[in-house]
Specification:
Layout lengths: L4 E3 L5 E3 L4 E2 L9 H12 L5 H5 L1 H8 L4 H16 L2 H13 L9 H5 L3 H16 L13 H10 L1 H9 L1 H14 L3 H9 L7 H10 L16 H4 L10
Antiparallel strand pairs: 1-2, 2-3
Helix pairs in contact: 1-8, 1-11, 3-4, 4-11, 8-9, 10-11, 10-12
């Protein structure tokens, strides 16, 4: 899986594989953009490149607002103190083995139902409208990708704000487990408006887990989400 983007001086998005892509409508690199950009780098699977870039990330965290700085700094402290294999195992246990902690946001609202297909199409349309070109090997509702979009485009931040209720079940589930990843998602939520009444009601309805529809469907979640030992993890 290709990693999310970091910042380039000219405002382009630089992915972990070294490629760059320009977002036509641009985005001022304000406080929100910096937090979203950092979260987009920290939430994917913790590979060697992430560990190699810890010093750079720690420097970047010093430039974000205090609340986010505290949370992201605490996460980076944990990452630096954790052996890579242990961090990878924790990531799989946190995100890949429990559907209530999925990083695919439309899954909370729609689960494996026909409606999720329409939601994924809507994400793709929003990306295309802003000139954003996500990779073909990832679903468009993947949270790190949406955060990358929000970091480089006003339309991306607007989309993230509209999806705030879909983010709430993940935020709550991570907080319940006490995982360090809760700090990353809390840092993002701290830069978004508080849930309105209707959004809070929708979030509560999603709290027990996504709906499921078996008849005539294949799951929308990607194979690595369904596989309990993804990304080269050793099998028992």
């Amino acid at each position: 899986m290709t990693g999310p983007a970091a910042a380039e001086p000219d405002g382009r998005a630089r992915r972990r594989d070294g490629h760059t892509e320009t977002v036509p409508d641009g985005h001022a690199d304000g406080a929100n953009a910096r937090v979203f950009r950092l979260a987009s780098v920290l939430l994917p699977y913790p590979d060697r490149e992430l560990f190699d870039g810890l010093a750079e990330l720690e420097d970047a965290v010093r430039g974000v607002p205090r609340g986010a700085r505290t949370r992201l700094g605490r996460f980076l402290d944990w990452l630096r103190a954790t052996p890579p294999l242990e961090a990878a195992r924790h990531y799989v246990e946190t995100f890949d083995l429990e559907r209530r902690r999925s990083l695919y946001l439309s899954y909370f609202r729609h689960g494996d139902t026909r409606r999720r297909g329409a939601a994924l199409i809507a994400y793709k349309a929003a990306y295309r409208a802003a000139g954003f070109s996500p990779p073909d090997d990832e679903l468009p509702d993947y949270l790190p990708m949406l955060l990358e979009f929000a970091a480089v485009s006003p339309r991306g931040e607007a989309l993230l704000r509209r999806r705030r209720a879909d983010l709430e079940p993940l935020r709550r589930a991570l907080a319940e487990t006490g995982t360090p990843y809760a700090d990353v998602v809390e840092a993002v939520c701290g830069r978004l408006p508080r849930l309105r009444r209707r959004e809070a009601e929708a979030a509560r309805a999603m709290a027990d887990g996504p709906p499921f529809e078996e008849v005539g469907l294949e799951p929308f979640a990607p194979p690595e989400y369904l596989d309990p030992y993804p990304r080269g993890e050793a099998r028992p």
